[in-house]
Amino acid sequence: MNIDELKNTWNEDDALEETPKISIEQRNKIHLPLEKMRKNMRMEAWSTIGIFIFAFGLIALCEAPFKFKFYIAILVASMVFVTVFFFSKFFKLYKDMSNPVLNTYEGLVELLHQFNLNKQYYFSFYVAFAPFLVCELIIVLEFIPYAKPLTDLQTALTIIITLLVALFGLFIMGRWWFEKFYGRYIKQVENLIEQLKK
Q1: Would you call 104 helix, strand, or coil by DSSP?
Q2: Which of 14, 75, 97, 117 is least buried, going by the fewest C-beta atoms within 10 A?
Q3: Mapping DSSP to helix (H, G, I), strand (E, B) and coil, where does residue 29 land?
Q4: Per the UniProt record, which residue ranges are transmembrane (predicted)?
Q5: Residue 72 CB partners (closer than 8 Å, separation 6+)
């Protein structure tokens, strides 16, 4: 095989592997769920900022011993740090959803992969708050004045039962929140990608 034949074969392979474009109608169908997800991401980011401002304001205004306020403030500041880390991942997805590369099938498949990855980040975000919950519970139990001090068994049972209920509630709320604000739109994108395969 000479050089010219090799070049022709190479060009034919490139022509076969061209990325199929998505029609304007299909792009419009995909744009709607993506825009709803972006809107929900903005709402969640602003509401999270509001919650942290409210938490710091509450700590500053509440009448409690300095140590109690200081420990809770350190925990909330640590929660802000963890939240910033996870939200930086979500922000990358937020930017990618408006990317013009989404007019190709491969671009949509890559976006779907990012959705699945961010779903894991989202649930990890909720799990990351378990240690903060433990610390806050211990601080509250140590600083609340009781008429009769709790026994060691009562303290252990209070912490274990509260944690089990709170973690289960956090898990259920996280799943519900994700499905309501993101999951159903991800399913719409998955269905559109399935249609494009046919």
Answers
A1: strand
A2: 14
A3: helix
A4: 45-62, 68-87, 121-144, 156-178
A5: 59, 136, 139
Cβ neighbours for 41, distance < 8 A, ≥ 6 positions apart? 90, 93, 94
Number of separate domains in the chain = 1
Cβ neighbours for 178, distance < 8 A, ≥ 6 positions apart:
119, 122, 123
- Which residue range is the domain that position 190 belongs to? 24-197
What 8-state DSSP symbol labels residue 2?
Answer: -
One digit per residue, the tens of pLDDT, for the chain of length 198 reads 555 654 555 455 444 444 445 555 666 667 778 888 889 999 999 999 999 999 999 999 988 889 999 999 999 999 999 999 999 988 888 888 776 555 667 777 888 888 888 888 888 888 888 889 889 888 888 888 777 888 889 888 988 998 899 888 888 888 898 999 899 888 888 888 787 776
Task: Choose among 115, 149, 106: nearest CA to 37.
Answer: 115
In-domain check, residue 144? yes
Contact 61, 1 (CB under 8 A): no
In a domain, 115, yes or no: yes
CA–CA separation, 87 vs 85, rounded Å?
A: 6
Can you list the alpha helix ranges (DSSP code H) found in the chain? 3-16, 24-61, 66-96, 105-127, 130-143, 152-178, 184-197
- The answer to the question of residue 19 being in a domain is no
- Is position 37 within any domain? yes
